[in-house]
Amino acid sequence: MVQQGQIDHLLQETGSIDPPAHVASQATLQDYEATYRRAAEDPEAFWAGVASELEWFKPWDKVFQWDYPTFQWFLGGQCNITYNCLDRHLNTPNKNKAAFIWLGEDGEERVFTYGRLAQLVNRFANGLKSLGVGKGDRVVIYMPLTPEGAIAMLACARIGAVHSVVYAGFSVGSLRDRILDAQAKVLITGDAGYRRGNRVDLKGIADEAVQGLDVLQHVIVWRREDEKPPLGPKEVDFDDLLNSGDIDCPAEVMEAEDPLYILYTSGTTGKPKGVQHVHGGYMVGTYYHFKTFWDIKDNDVFWCTSDIGWVVGHSYIVYAPLIAGATTVFREGAPDYPGPHVFYEIIEKYGVNVIFTAPTLVRMLMRYGEEHPQNYNLRSLRFLTCAGEPLNPEAQKWAYEYICGNGEWAYLVDNWWQTETGGPCLGTLANMTSKPGRVGKPLPGAELDIVDREGQPIEEPDKGGILIIRKPFPHFFRTVYGDPDRYAENWNTIPGVYFTGDVALRDADGYYMVVGRADDVLNVAGHRIGSAEVESALVSHPAVAEAAVIGKPDELRGESIKGFVTLRVGNDPSDRMISDLQLHVRQELGPIAVPSEIEFTPTLPKTRSGKIMRRLLKAQELGLDPGDITTLEE
Ligand code: AMP
After folding, report:
1. Measured between alpha carbons, how far is 405 from 399 in angstroms, rounded to an integer?
2. Per-residue pLDDT averaged across 591-597, rounded?
3. DSSP 11-23
4. What contacts 230, CB < 8 A, 6 or more positions away?
5. How far is CA 540 from CA 173, 522, 584, 585, in A?
6. Residue minimizing CA distance to atom 9 of ligand 1
């Protein structure tokens, strides 16, 4: 929830940064205005043009059909996203080009060419088939950030199975809920992940999560450690399955609208929503933005610091870079472990040209100081992009100065999107002036606006309102898995448009600033967490009667979580109780959802209808006048 006192400082003029001449002159998308207009005037011709750059088994009969609030793109077209990720490169010089450069926290490096990756995906896809997995079956992937995680995703897509990746930082409750909601037939997991030199016992978490779940027929375990404990009755070894499969597995012919994946994200209720994307439109749209927004050239090395557990990792570690034939670096573990130098060391060592990262990482690097970037040659860098949460001007300016060489070699910009949009909607292009504190302008194909609660456009510059999307583009999500009504809610909150849940404003130059959420969703280090999810985790502890959580501004993580808890009779507040509750949330949801502060209170403020007033708690906590709460919030 955004409150007025919180945004005033953001509105201060923070100047502008022009793109370095060499970056602007080689930008793929030279004429933003004309391209934007072309896409807005005839979106069907625009997206059909992009789609025809890719391979289809059968061309579409109709580009777009809107049966509000549902819609379809490329109707009658047949394709498979993995054919575009892999097969189409195999008769070109890309076959021997590095597709993935994977790095481990301990310095391990594994490189996969397109040819090798295609073989491994085919083998594993055949392995999945041998277990009876086929088109439409749901497969949950709970894997560390490794090539095997990406191979598992691609293998599912190859045979038409629908993957649902669960971030390996989530815990027992989150994993179990997602397996159940998707009614998954198979779980693919690993024995361990590594972070900050610690071992994360993924298999132990998975074992607990699947207890008594009859729906699961198989659990495939990737065992990377030397010690290989015996497998249980439903369990299959990942490598055995991979090695037993043939290297040929033709891509299943998919309808353009067939589901590709489900990815759960937080909403305003306690139940995460399964955002569903499709093969056809998703490959077209994510590819378009990879080429035009990330501005990737054939010889570039691209590094995406996200994880396959998030939409950014789906679109920009796995799918779009492979469709475009790029070389992508990704790395397991913490970005400042074993030390704050690793980020810069990797750029120098691999000659990274383009980076996709998050503001929280930039703020962390800023905190470690400029002596680290100064120790490395970062001149390979050309373009750095951030998304996930507001990029604060201080962090942007620091990174521009010390990582981009003050524009001598690189440029740094912001972009905005969500799990639902599959790819970016707002951004500053490589040849566009950047205004720190502002994300940028609507990207071609995305029609955004700022409206009031009744849907009336807010034309006045710098006046806050709800960020909405007017029309669905090809890579927009199609539904909430198993819950079409919840999907429709997004299009009915403000009738006629898609409600993003964000509060934004637009300045006189047409630049958007995304300020924060209009609803009870938190953003911790760029990760979306529902207040209601944390509250229900707290309330599931036997000592808790009621709970409310709010987000508090946090210098490093954007927001931190504070919980207000009333205890059941017979339980007393204590430090021990606080750590018990924190541990409980960690167990249920995972470390990112743990409240950093917990306050015990005899009652919680409520409306007459009994709804807990989180807004009031937040205003009190931040020392704002509760009467100062603007109409921006619910
Ligand atoms: P997710 O679906 O987890 O990717 O989270 C999407 C949410 O993150 C958006 O609705 C915004 O609240 C926030 N977000 C993403 N990118 C930005 C950005 N560049 N500036 C401000 N907020 C952002």
Report:
1. 9
2. 95
3. GS----BPPPHHH
4. none
5. 11, 20, 9, 9
6. 418
| pLDDT confidence of residue 11 | 58
Residue 8, pLDDT above cutoff 60: no
- Kindly state the average pLDDT of the residues 200-217: 97
501 lines ligand 1 (CB under 6 A): yes
* Mean pLDDT for the chain overall: 94
Ligand 1: atom nearest CA of 275 is: 2
Residue nearest to atom 5 of ligand 1 (CA): 418
Residue 514 Cβ contacting ligand 1 at under 6 Å? yes
Q: Is the CB of 439 under 6 A from ligand 1?
A: yes
Residues 6+ apart with CB under 8 A from 290: 296, 316, 320, 321, 323, 324, 326
Quick: pLDDT tens for 519-550.
Answer: 889 999 989 999 989 998 999 999 998 999 99
Q: Over 60: is that where the pLDDT of 56 sits?
A: yes
Q: What are residue 41's phi and psi, to 5 degrees? A: -70, -40
**CA 377 and chain centroid, separation:** 30
The pLDDT-based confidence of 269 (bands split at 50, 70, 90) is confident
Residue 9 pLDDT: 52
Cα(110) to centroid(ligand 1), Å: 31
CA 410 to ligand 1 centroid distance, Å: 24
- Distance from the CA of 563 to the center of ligand 1, in angstroms? 22
Does residue 143 contact residue 308 with C-beta atoms inside 8 Å? yes
Residue 70: its pLDDT value, please? 98
Confirm or reject: Cβ of 390 under 6 Å from ligand 1: yes
How far, in Å, is the centroid of ligand 1 from the Cα of 191?
Answer: 31
Cα 222 to ligand 1 centroid, rounded to whole Å: 32
Characterize the bridge pairing of strands 218-222 and 186-190. Answer: parallel
Please work out whether the CB of residue 169 comes within 6 Å of at least one atom of ligand 1.
no
The DSSP element (H or E) to which 132 belongs, if any, is: none
pLDDT at 276 over 70: yes
Q: Whose CA is nearest to atom 6 of ligand 1?
A: 418
| Spatial separation of the C-alpha atoms in residues 13 and 19, rounded to whole Å | 19
- How confident is the model over 357-402, as pLDDT tens digits? 999 999 999 999 999 999 999 999 999 999 999 899 999 999 999 9
Is any atom of ligand 1 closer than 6 Å to the C-beta of 523? yes
Instruction: Please work out whether the CB of residue 357 comes within 6 Å of at least one atom of ligand 1.
Output: no
Distance CA 618, CA 597 (A): 13
* Structure confidence at residue 13 (pLDDT): 58
List 79's β-bridge partners, or say none.
254
Ligand 1 proximity of 416 Cβ (cutoff 6 Å): yes
Q: If you measure from the C-alpha of residue 75 to the centroid of ligand 1, how many angstroms do you get, rounded to a whole number? A: 30
Which residue's C-alpha comes closest to atom 23 of ligand 1?
389
The full set of domains in the chain, from first to last, is 3-80+258-514 (3.40.50.12780), 82-252 (3.40.50.980), 521-622 (3.30.300.30)
pLDDT value for 467 = 97
Q: Is the CB of 359 under 6 A from ligand 1?
A: no
| Per-residue CA distances from 398 to 199, 275, 375, 406, 411 (Å) | 33, 35, 16, 9, 12
Distance CA 96, CA 102 (A): 16
Give the mean model confidence (pLDDT) for residues 236-256. 97
